[in-house]
């Protein structure tokens, strides 16, 4: 597989015997309806990317991680695409993975030897699915393409004319066609028109702005609620009036308050009682979760998952950088509101009661307050080198950042269960 930056979220860390931090990352693969079809699993040891499928070390490490974490946990029950070396297939190492959940991904540059083809047929007979990554249509890869359940084509490496030729050569194939490196809505639309079935990339966090650029009325109410939540103290009478304007938001908010996320000892039935029991700071976070969920209606669920991860990570890691946790939580969450509302970030920041420094962070300016958002965005893209550069330049410990991110991922996964 390619080693360029890709959207990914870290599923969790673990220590190797030598004390080196390891963790698994996952990148969603979406279908034509923007639903998750599966996750590709990547591995990073904290300093060096180990994602090349032709590396036995990479595959052994990846297999070890998938066993430690469990495919069910890593991929939420969806197919898990695991990059494999040729030796891992012929040597049967991959059989430690559950056939019904694992998709074994092999680079199309692999030599289609009789031994490898025999191993692939045996694995398919056992119930495994095969994926062929970075497919370029070379004649040498045809025997593997004939066996593949998924064929991946990198939109950044294969131009439109080459893709047309390549796809014509796949006429009659029963394999699902996966477009890789789909980073914009324009590329997504192009991949749809060309006949791809699945899509891998960051496009779903960059929806095209609405032509009118006008926010619906109920969303304006939600923005007013956010403004009210930034007041000290919160005007509960006004907040209650605003929340009750939207039954769906009220339901989401109370469901979150009563969820195991906040371990309430008694059931909460009103906005006022929720605030009294959980306190203003926690109530702000819960309300922002509920509002984000309403903002994201009609958008891919993965956008919401990433927003939750960003918010929680920025909040948890704020103490490392001596930043305000509440403001960092807000910055992380709001960073994906433009994608949810389909308006430019320049328009959105004018509607929110943010400090000037927070506005500048969301607009892409560099500042101490931007460190955490910058780090987690690079993490999502699998840009490990920039993650390290950020931590090194600020004197931060990568282990602390990774732990905060792993906790944020787990928290976001739990929060999502009460929002969809």
What does this structure look like?
With 420 residues, this protein is α/β, with parallel strands linked by helices. It has two domains: 9-205, EAL domain (TIM Barrel, Alpha-Beta Barrel); 217-416, no CATH class. Helices cover 47% and strands 13% of the residues. It has 20 helices and nine strands. It has helices spanning 56-69, 71-75, 86-90, 114-125, 142-147, 160-168, 185-194, 217-229, 236-243, 247-257, 271-278, 280-295, 301-317, 325-334, 337-341, 345-348, 356-362, 371-380, 384-393, 398-416, and strands at residues 9-15, 21-31, 36-44, 80-83, 102-107, 129-133, 150-154, 176-180, 198-200. An eight-stranded mixed beta barrel has the order 2-3-4-5-6-7-8-9. Helix 6 links the parallel strand 7 (150-154) and strand 8 (176-180). Helix 10 crosses helix 12, helix 11 (271-278) crosses helix 12 and helix 18 packs antiparallel against helix 19. It starts with 8 loop residues before the first strand and ends with a helix. The model is unreliable at 1-8, 10-21 and 49-54 (pLDDT under 50).
Quick summary:
With 420 residues, this protein is an alpha/beta fold. 47% of the residues lie in helices and 13% in strands.
